[in-house]
Amino acid sequence: MFENARTFSMDLCGRPLVIETGKLGQLAGGSCMARYGDTAVFCAVTASAKPRDGIDFFPLSVDFEEKLYSVGRIPGSFMRREGRPTEKAILASRMIDRPMRPLFPKNMRNDVSIVCTVMSVDPDCSPEITGMIGASCAIAISDIPWNGPVGGVIAGYVDDQIVINPDSEQQKRSRMHVTVVSTDKKVAMIEAGADRIPDDVMFDAIMKAHEVNQSIVNFINGIVAEIGKPKFEFEDCEPDHDMFEAIKDFAIEKVRYAMDTDDKRIRDERLQPIYDEVHAKFDEIYPEQESVINECMYKLQKFVVRSWLINDKKRVDGRGIDEIRPLAAEVGLLPRAHGSGLFTRGQTQVLTVATLGQLRDAQLLDGIDDEEEKRYMHHYNMPSYSVGETKPSRGPGRREIGHGALAERALLPVIPSAEEFPYSIRLVSEVLSSNGSTSQGSVCGSTLALMDAGVPIKEPVAGISCGLITNGDEFMTMVDIQGVEDFFGDMDFKVAGTHDGITAIQMDLKIDGLTPAIIKEALEKTHKARIQILDEVMLKAIDKPRDELSPYAPKMLSTKIDVDKIRDVIGQGGKVIQKICADCNCKIDVEEDGNVHICAIDIEDARRALMIVETIAKDPEIGAVFKGRVTRLMSFGAFVEIAPGKEGLVHISKLDVKRVEKVEDVVQVGDEVIVKVVEIDDQGRLNLSRRDALIQVEGLTPENDISNEAPRRSNNRGGYRGRRRDHE
Fold first, then answer.
1. Cα torsion for 623, 629, 632, 635, to the nearest 10°?
2. Is 264 strand, coil or helix?
3. Helices 199-227 and 127-141, interaxial angle, to 10°?
4. CA-CA to 203 of 20 to 30 Å: which in 152, 221, 673, 678?
């Protein structure tokens, strides 16, 4: 039945990589089941027969579909089925898209769809990498025109050694996670998260990964040689050469004038009448081709900017090649927020706001990996007004999710652990103005907001982007690209890091890849630029995290109790812990391992709750002072509850610094009093003293040394020691 079924295999870093074709998804343009260890991802690619009308871009869509059956779990949603893609699935889709898109013909307008469905997950073998390789193979063997294939691996850094495709145990100890995708000659994509890795180590890791990728590319080329389909012919949608040359001759000087400014608003204002003039002249010459004329105008702007950079070493705004736009940083803009930071670079401006919450506020995750929650979240918003446009807000798209994840990855290595700082942390970066590299602006703004909030980060982080212009084998890089240099250039190489090293990289390309020389130069330039941003701007706005949290931020205290005492702290039906929360105006989280986190706006409330929890969980020591509540009055004294379920007797002789005739003269049921533990008998019962507590805490002195304690009978009848049932 499956006479065309074929299986191909190779060894990849000590684990089998298997490609199965001809059996599944036979109606797709190209398909395969990619297996790496026990990870299995089905990859299918299709293309439309005709180009899509009225567009000036290549319409590629990539979907990375996580199926929870791949890890033996039932979805946790109400419908018990997978819904919208998770954030990690979206990031995986973008990771696959970025290296593959530039390898399709730029003049093709046929819709192309790549779908990678994760069907089985081996923790030692990344489904993202498996899907990347499977998608590359599916396109390569299909009839869709493409200048691939590509190969991809992960580089880790374990025990000071670079490890390619680390297993799950190595990943836990790795100081970096770098995804590198390559063609047969160049590096096509880099995406990295790292714990302050030096530039030279990062470069060596990229090069080692690139070397391993060559074996994958050769493997896929071997499959193509055996079963690859001929590529179909497509309609060339490149604008007519004569049309472009005519528009160029008519408008090039006007476009040069319009582009020659550092202000995006002025540039747009200058360009609009030129568009009107071009349409007035050429709409009649080329009827019903308004969109093509607009594409010619776009190409003309690109021609002007690139020729300035390549031939004249001139940037649109007149800056030097390695000059950063004017910078500004400010903190504490929002008085009621827990922390806020505003970072401005030229016309790019990002305001990041930090919010602190309980550990229970951590985000719950329902994906195919082992991560069930995260306590540090970064969200990125880019409204239409930030680029001077008018569009309705429809929630975050893939770009916003990707930029937020990049900033989150950049700051994660410097976020203190839950033991050091028992808070959930949410950062929201609001892009107020966008003219190039807002993602790295959000990294800078987020560092400012965290320090303003008093989060004890390990080091401040800054980010910057590096652009590229190529002309054959020649290339030129430039730091801090603005919008037009990103649109018309060949690369957006974003690097974030501290003084000590790199924390994140994301590389977007419009060409088929980068040489080692370009990568090395980009790393050197971004290193120098981020140090300049840190030292000259950010650390002058705030040089370290604030010593105290905002008065509006929750105050958090933590302790650890014996696991056997958790039941006592919570109480039957939660009565004990609910009473503590109500009395102390706080919230309490008790974890299974005995860690207790107490959250309150007022630190004194948190301290009082902490004392109560520790009193319940730990036997009070002689000499400890507590604030308790009177629960019962007896002729011989008063019972005082120092914590839910723990009470002791204050004998009448210990009720005050002066002689007491009647207990009711000093205290009533419900009164709050301070008491000191003066005795714990062999059965664990407490004898308390208000008298000693007043002397110790308030500095009172007794009026006389006459004790009114009555002689006790030998059997202690009627006294505290004889009322065991009351104590219990």
1. 50
2. helix
3. 40
4. 221
Distance between CA atoms of 194 and 174, rounded to whole angstroms? 9
Residues 6 or more apart in contact with residue 360 via CB below 8 angstroms: 424, 587, 589
Look at strands 686-689 and 637-643 and give their pairing: unpaired
Spatial CA neighbour of 690 closest among 724, 648, 632, 727: 648
DSSP symbol at 572: G
* pLDDT one-digit tens code per residue, 241-280: 999 999 999 999 999 999 999 888 999 999 999 999 999 9
H helix intervals, 463-555? 483-488, 516-533, 539-541
Which two structure tokens, joined as six digits, stand for 13? Answer: 């870093």
pLDDT tens, position by position, 289-309? 888 999 999 999 999 999 999
Q: For residue 222, count other CB atoms closer than 10 A to its CB.
A: 11
Question: Phi/psi at 725 (nearest 5 deg)?
Answer: -65, -40
Q: What is the pLDDT of residues 352-363, one digit of tens each?
A: 999 999 888 999
- Lateral strand order in the sheet of 348-357: 327-331, 339-345, 348-357, 424-433, 376-381
Strand 474-479 relative to strand 462-471: parallel, antiparallel, unpaired?
A: antiparallel
Q: What is the DSSP letter of 621?
A: P
* 170-177, long-range: CB < 8 A, 24+ apart: 176/202, 176/205
Amino acid at 290: E
pLDDT the model gives residue 256: 95
Residue 232 above 90 pLDDT? Answer: yes
With beta carbons less than 8 A apart as the criterion, state whether 635 and 571 touch: no
- Least Cα distance to 656 among 626, 698, 624, 686 occurs for 698
In contact, 691 and 659? CB cutoff 8 Å = no
